[in-house]
Amino acid sequence: GLPRDHPESYHYYMWNNLFKHIDIDPKNVHILDGNASNLEKECEKFEENIKKSGGVELFVGGIGPDGHIAFNEPGSSLVSRTRVKTLAQDTLEANARFFDNDVSKVPKQALTVGVGTVMDAREVMVLITGAHKAFALYKAIEEGVNHMWTVSAFQQHPRTIMICDEDATLELRVKT
Hints:
Layout: H1 10-17, H2 39-52, E1 58-62, E2 83-86, H3 89-95, E3 109-112, H4 115-119, E4 123-128, H5 134-142, E5 160-164
Parallel strand pairs: 1-4, 4-5
Antiparallel strand pairs: 2-3
């Protein structure tokens, strides 16, 4: 529901942090529209456009401290597709810093690609930084696949790379 030009909207973030810095035709950028009149149809259209374009070549994403990828909160289906997702309280609290530290101003829902949508990408790159995400990295790679730690699904993806800083590795048992 945030306007595209709101500084905390995903659209604004992607344009100002990536797309305006690279040579890309704006018609080749596809971002879910959280202001679409029918959010479910918007998600279906997004999935259709992925198929029409031949699929996702490279998915780049980060994780939350609770191990969610995109907005696939703990407990999300590991075969989920692009959809409307209600955000977990931890996510609302983590994002309050972007809304004057007022959790009541944080949107309660988001449009997100599903875990299954990301699993269909030919390659996946996950960026993990900071000690506050160290336990999530541990759960992602040193324990089994679990829908409560949705990033763990990428253990089963043939071409996933996790890029992390040293602080993010603090909880790992295997120190390589």
